[in-house]
């Protein structure tokens, strides 16, 4: 049974060269593309950091040049140092991957729900209540005759 609830959604269109583009999907596709590229760049940075760590373990005298900091003597690049060096690139990768997923959700949604629509929905609910009260009042008046 239809409850009478009307939900309105805004679809924003952009017209370029005689073609219409769904603006939210267009923006979402650019964001997905950019965030996937940034996630791939962050994944590459993880591999670069791992290679630097391998060189640092093989030649501890290059630690200062590879990472910009030096470990006190005796030179030793431990597994704790490896974890510490990889934390930043992994966090960066997860950040961009999360933004890519959020952009994909925006792209797939295809609609924008703005607070204005909630306001419109509240107004329409208010109008529905007024109309139903008017019908009831009319029905009572009609029954009395």
Chain-wise SSE layout:
Layout: E1 13-16, E2 19-22, H1 23-58, H2 63-67, H3 79-109, H4 115-144
Antiparallel strand pairs: 1-2
Helix pairs in contact: 1-3
In terms of structural class, how would the helical and strand content be classed?
A: mainly alpha
Silhouette: elongated
- The radius of gyration is 30 Å
Largest sheet: 2 strands, antiparallel
Unreliable spans are 1-8
Q: What's the helical proportion of residues?
A: over 70%
> In angstroms, what separates the terminal alpha carbons?
32 Å
The number of helical runs is 4
Number of domains: 2
Tell me what portion of residues adopts beta-strand conformation: 5-15%
- Average predicted confidence as pLDDT: 76
Q: How is the largest sheet built, in terms of strand order? A: 1-2
Record keyword descriptors for this entry.
145 residues; 2 domains; two-stranded antiparallel sheet; mainly alpha; 4 helices
Notes on the protein architecture:
This protein is mainly alpha-helical. The protein has two domains: 13-113; 114-145. 70% of the residues lie in helices and 6% in strands. A two-stranded antiparallel sheet has the order 1-2. Helix 1 (23-58) runs antiparallel to helix 3. The longest helix has 36 residues, at 23-58.
What does this entry show, briefly?
With 145 residues, the chain is mainly alpha-helical.
């Amino acid at each position: 049974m239809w409850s009478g609830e009307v939900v309105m959604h805004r679809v924003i269109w952009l017209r370029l060269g005689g073609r219409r583009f769904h603006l939210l999907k267009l923006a979402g596709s650019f964001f997905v593309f950019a965030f996937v590229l940034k996630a791939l760049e962050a994944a590459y940075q993880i591999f670069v950091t791992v290679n630097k760590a391998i060189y640092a373990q093989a030649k501890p005298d290059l630690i200062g040049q590879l990472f910009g900091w030096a470990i006190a003597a005796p030179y030793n690049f431990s597994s704790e140092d490896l974890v510490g060096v990889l934390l930043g690139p992994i966090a960066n990768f997860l950040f961009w991957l999360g933004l890519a997923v959020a952009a994909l959700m925006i792209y797939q949604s295809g609609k924008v729900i703005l607070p204005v629509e909630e306001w419109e929905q509240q107004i329409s609910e208010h109008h529905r209540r007024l109309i139903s009260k008017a019908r009831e009042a009319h029905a009572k008046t009609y029954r009395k005759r």
